[in-house]
Amino acid sequence: MNPVNTKPYQLPADATWFVTGCSSGIGRAIAELVVSKPGQRLVATARNPSSLSYLADDNDAILKLALDVTSRTSVEKAFKAAADHFKEFHIDVLVNNAGYELAGDTEATTEDEMHDQLETNFFGTVRVATNATRVMRQSKDHRGGVIFNISSLAGVAAFPGQAFYHASKFAVEGWSESFARELHPDWNINFCIVEPGGVKTEFERGSKRYTGVHEDYDGADMPGRQLAAWVKKGLAAGAGVPPSAVAEVLYLVASRNDKVPLWLPLTSTAGQLIKMKLQARLENLEEVKELTPIDKK
Ligand SMILES: NC(=O)c1ccc[n+]([C@@H]2O[C@H](COP(=O)([O-])OP(=O)(O)OC[C@H]3O[C@@H](n4cnc5c(N)ncnc54)[C@H](OP(=O)(O)O)[C@@H]3O)[C@@H](O)[C@H]2O)c1
């Protein structure tokens, strides 16, 4: 398999960051961090640009744009507006962050609900990353860039009661890894699949969407309900890291003049759970090793 991200990445002193979902949470924390760094430029996007009022209006290094990742037209319009605004337009860092979680029982999920989840978290990520890749690829000097696709611990390990959220993030992981391997190394485009654990944002509050309740899954002994109760307890106890911690580490990865990791689990819990998942897969390989080699028979 061809290796990815083999060379150290150097963040330009006048780098332009393009961030989706800047109205709250991780996107907002990244926007706030980028504008605090002298020389860095920011394209901050949100479905409703009035949610970006925390960013200055009179700073040439900041461009605020409307962008709904579910709309191809909206994405293309935002990229055009950014290119028109900055004289020598380039995107150095994309943070593909917009997303939400659909929670609930699979058997109670409507077609619209499941499609909306994939449309935002997966196809939205694809639309924005593809446009950013074109801009990075066409840079004259192989300036390249970094594409942070915000996946999740939920993009590697799956838990009950949020199957379509997992499907969307597993899709982000598979697509990002494959697309990263399509690129010529000389283009210097570095994908980083970010896998946070719990982050204290609107994610578990205002942004979360729920399917209807399926009566056959509604018992306290059902795995989905048990997990939901455990998560609720953790949230009440203050579990999770602040979004600024995610922003700091993404800035570090982009700016430390080192190779960009293809996968970046964030929080020790996410690291442990991903390790458990991978160990389970190794054990499974052992368990089925008599059945696996059908090509050798
Ligand atoms: N918080 C966690 O524990 C956690 C853990 C792992 C991964 N993540 C991932 O981190 C990312 C950011 O979430 P967050 O925790 O910062 O939650 P958040 O505070 O709810 O922020 C989500 C952002 O996504 C935006 N968004 C949703 N749908 C959109 C669309 N169609 N087009 C453009 N923007 C849209 C929201 O904008 P509006 O204001 O317009 O709704 C909001 O700005 C998500 O991809 C999430 O899956 C979060």
TrEMBL record:
<dbReference type="InterPro" id="IPR036291">
    <property type="entry name" value="NAD(P)-bd_dom_sf"/>
</dbReference>
<keyword id="KW-0560">Oxidoreductase</keyword>
<dbReference type="InterPro" id="IPR002347">
    <property type="entry name" value="SDR_fam"/>
</dbReference>
<dbReference type="InterPro" id="IPR051911">
    <property type="entry name" value="SDR_oxidoreductase"/>
</dbReference>
<dbReference type="GO" id="GO:0016491">
    <property type="term" value="F:oxidoreductase activity"/>
</dbReference>
<dbReference type="Pfam" id="PF00106">
    <property type="entry name" value="adh_short"/>
</dbReference>
<comment type="similarity">
    <text>Belongs to the short-chain dehydrogenases/reductases (SDR) family.</text>
</comment>
<dbReference type="InterPro" id="IPR057326">
    <property type="entry name" value="KR_dom"/>
</dbReference>
<feature type="domain" description="Ketoreductase">
    <location>
        <begin position="15"/>
        <end position="202"/>
    </location>
</feature>
<protein>
    <recommendedName>
        <fullName>Ketoreductase domain-containing protein</fullName>
    </recommendedName>
</protein>
